[in-house]
UniProtKB/TrEMBL annotation:
<feature type="domain" description="Putative 5'-nucleotidase C-terminal">
    <location>
        <begin position="349"/>
        <end position="587"/>
    </location>
</feature>
<dbReference type="InterPro" id="IPR029052">
    <property type="entry name" value="Metallo-depent_PP-like"/>
</dbReference>
<feature type="region of interest" description="Disordered">
    <location>
        <begin position="538"/>
        <end position="572"/>
    </location>
</feature>
<dbReference type="Pfam" id="PF00149">
    <property type="entry name" value="Metallophos"/>
</dbReference>
<keyword id="KW-0732">Signal</keyword>
<feature type="domain" description="Calcineurin-like phosphoesterase">
    <location>
        <begin position="22"/>
        <end position="246"/>
    </location>
</feature>
<dbReference type="Pfam" id="PF21953">
    <property type="entry name" value="NadN_nucleosid_C"/>
</dbReference>
<dbReference type="GO" id="GO:0009166">
    <property type="term" value="P:nucleotide catabolic process"/>
</dbReference>
<dbReference type="GO" id="GO:0016787">
    <property type="term" value="F:hydrolase activity"/>
</dbReference>
<dbReference type="InterPro" id="IPR014485">
    <property type="entry name" value="Pesterase_C1039"/>
</dbReference>
<dbReference type="GO" id="GO:0005576">
    <property type="term" value="C:extracellular region"/>
</dbReference>
<dbReference type="InterPro" id="IPR006179">
    <property type="entry name" value="5_nucleotidase/apyrase"/>
</dbReference>
<feature type="compositionally biased region" description="Polar residues">
    <location>
        <begin position="538"/>
        <end position="558"/>
    </location>
</feature>
<dbReference type="InterPro" id="IPR041823">
    <property type="entry name" value="YHR202W_N"/>
</dbReference>
<dbReference type="GO" id="GO:0005829">
    <property type="term" value="C:cytosol"/>
</dbReference>
<protein>
    <submittedName>
        <fullName>Ser/Thr protein phosphatase-like protein family</fullName>
    </submittedName>
</protein>
<dbReference type="InterPro" id="IPR004843">
    <property type="entry name" value="Calcineurin-like_PHP"/>
</dbReference>
């Protein structure tokens, strides 16, 4: 772990369900190679993961089983090690490649910008030569300009010890927000391709493995499952997914399951299968597929207490030379980038999902009530007496702020993106004031987003559309102030009786039940958030701004542009300001409201200064307590 990482806290653990064929799975790492330096439960780093995988590989070699490592994309954007260097990603590729990953693919974050997809072409694909798959992804070769698959469409291989013959595909969901140097073929189109149909008909297979940057409860995986199952009624199909940043496990049928392993190096997913037919090796005879196969999953908290336990090692025997070297490389990169440089001191925690919105400890309330208005009110147009509505998407905010030092690292954890704020001058207020409802509630804009698969919320929150019980119910207004709902202790399995005080953390409920997490935790409550929040700037405090503090979001299809109160103080026109990432949706929404606006009418705020910089400047101006200690 990193030198400043907090030590993990001992906790009751469930064992690894080790079997004939085993997998370790990471997804949505988003550059968190250094692990979590403020959270003991997730404080192991990529170097520790390298050591851990080595011990498990040795175990497989010793008992004749197999172990495969999988990563399902979104390795970039979300941490200073990636976003804080110039050019971005300077250290990322050399750190990532030190792990021996058997199957790897791209996520959407590798594809938002041409420079990151080209970096896949130049670095990740060759670094994982033969293991990177791109079943539905093409790139314009930066050398020749020709469109070609980013990597092989599929791969057939035989496992080292059991001789299991596996056909693997590496997908990305039907993403449409990519830069124009890549092309994504929809999954629906891809399964109709001759090469796909031919590959799955291969008779010399023991298992089909579909991994991808795809929500395991998505239409895309449902399509792949039904297509493959129709062709191969009895073959085991193992899925690994990602993108929604949650721990989840789906059972498709008695021979097909899917695992999703969280986000940000918080979770190492473990999966095992027993009863797979073996093609036979010199040491293992040919064995038929068992009529009753066994699939098991475990979500490991990524900390050394867990990793030592599951590898049967201790602090002396766990670190491998390669792992230690990678830990050092990460530390050197962090120092080079001065990620611990302090910009201010956060007076209390601010949460993305662990408090409802609005709430005094919601990061969105902080942005809405302090950062955005206090920054934008200084701009010349507001100083001249104009008013503005400032709208930003909640998905651009990626992580919580903990009480204490707010560093360069924190800045990128919270807001890694380079998008700035843009504005439309003098929009009729009668339309502008309807915008937030249109962006947040059901209606044409949301329907279009669903169709396109582009979202304004963070992936965790988007995932809730397939998982209706993911979040706590909207809390009553009374419990918002002065306190907030306390996590309830959870009645738990017998390990609870060992006398441990359980640490709050993930308590995953999935298709196999409640026993997936390796660490027994007390339950954390998560709350849903809207797509967008809005600050009002330049209005007198007595004016009513009905949308800036939403009450319960409306669920009625017809309510998205109705019932917005008017007051006598309503201005005739306001500036509509917004995060550049949602410009397309702002324009569409205004058109829907009857305004004639187009991209060319928008202007950049403060010469395109990124929202990340804006937040950093605010922290320096408001939370800087030079000389004072910061807890
Ligand atoms: N420049 C960007 C890029 C993305 N977002 C937000 O992130 C969401 C996607 O995140 P995943 O980790 O699931 O891929 C996207 O829906 C946006 O909300 C952004 O704000 N700015």
């Amino acid at each position: 772990e990193q030198p400043s990482a907090p030590s993990p806290i001992a906790a009751p653990l469930r064992e690894l369900p080790w079997a004939q064929l085993n997998f370790l799975h990471t997804t949505d790492v988003h550059g968190w190679w250094g692990g979590h330096l403020q959270e003991p439960s997730y404080s192991a780093d990529w170097g520790d993961y390298i050591s851990f995988a080595k011990h498990l590989r040795d175990r497989a070699d010793a008992d004749g089983s197999d172990l495969l490592l999988i990563d399902t994309g979104d390795r970039v954007e979300g941490n200073g090690i990636y976003d804080g260097s110039s050019p971005v990603g300077k250290f990322t590729y050399d750190i990532a490649k030190e792990q021996k990953i058997d199957l790897i693919c791209s996520g959407n974050h590798e594809l938002y910008k041409a420079n990151s997809s080209n970096a896949e072409f130049y670095h990740t694909v060759p670094n994982f030569k033969g293991n990177y798959l791109a079943s539905n992804l093409d790139i314009y070769n930066p050398e020749t300009g020709k469109l070609e698959p980013l990597a092989a469409r599929y791969k057939k291989f035989t496992t080292k010890n059991q001789g299991i013959r596996i056909l693997a595909f590496g997908f990305i969901f039907d993403f449409t927000g990519n830069a124009n140097n890549t092309i994504i073929h929809t999954v629906e189109d891809t399964v109709k391709e001759d090469w796909f149909k031919e590959a799955i008909r291969d008779k010399e297979l023991d298992l089909i493995l579909v991994f991808g940057h795809v929500d395991i409860r998505s239409f895309e995986y449902a399509t792949l499952y039904s297509t493959i199952r129709k062709a191969r009624w009895d073959l085991p199909i193992q899925f690994f997914g990602g993108h929604s940043h949650i721990r989840d496990y789906k059972i498709y049928d008695s021979k097909s399951v899917a695992l999703e392993s969280g986000r940000y190096m918080e979770t190492i997913g473990f999966m095992s299968i027993d009863g797979v037919r073996t093609g036979g090796t010199k040491d293992v005879p040919v064995k038929p597929q068992k009529s009753k196969m066994k699939f098991s999953r475990r979500y490991l908290d990524n900390n050394l207490f867990s990793l030592h336990h599951h590898s049967g090692k201790d602090s002396k025997t766990f670190p491998t030379e390669r792992g230690v070297n990678v830990t050092k490389t990460i530390d050197q990169a962090r120092n080079f980038l001065a990620l611990t440089k302090r910009y201010g001191c956060a007076p209390h925690d601010l949460w993305v999902s662990r408090r409802p919105y609005p709430h005094k400890e919601s990061i969105f309330s902080w942005l809405e009530q302090q950062v955005l208005p206090q920054t934008i009110e200084l701009s010349p147009r507001i100083q001249e007496g104009r008013k503005a509505l400032v709208i930003t998407n909640t998905g651009g905010i990626r992580f919580d702020i903990f009480k204490g030092p707010f560093t360069k690292d924190t800045t990128f954890l919270v807001s890694p993106f380079t998008s700035g704020i843009r504005y439309l001058k003098d929009v009729p207020y009668k339309s502008a004031k309807q915008l937030l409802k249109l962006l947040n509630n059901e209606g044409p804009i949301l329907e279009m987003m669903e169709k396109e698969g582009t979202w304004m919320k963070s992936p965790e929150h988007v995932a809730a559309r397939f998982r209706p019980n993911m979040f706590a119910q909207e809390p009553d207004a009374e419990i918002l102030e002065p306190g907030f709902p306390q996590p309830q202790p959870q009645p738990q399995a017998p390990l609870w009786d060992l006398g441990h005080d359980l640490i709050p953390g993930y308590t995953t409920h999935d298709d196999a039940g409640d026993d997936g997490d390796d660490t027994l935790h007390s339950r954390l409550i998560f709350y849903n958030v809207p797509n967008c929040i809005q600050s009002t700037v330049g209005f007198s405090s007595s004016s009513a701004h009905p949308q800036s503090q939403p009450k319960r979001p409306s669920s009625s299809n017809t309510e998205h542009i109705e019932h917005v109160d008017s007051t006598e103080d309503d201005p005739e026109k306001v500036d509509v300001m917004f995060n550049e990432f949602i410009q397309k949706w702002i324009i569409l929404a205004l058109e829907y409201l009857g305004e004639e606006v187009e991209e060319a009418d928008t202007e950049s705020f403060r010469d395109g200064m990124s929202f990340t910089e804006i937040m950093k400047e605010w922290v320096k101006g408001h939370w800087d307590i030079a000389g004072e200690t910061c807890p």
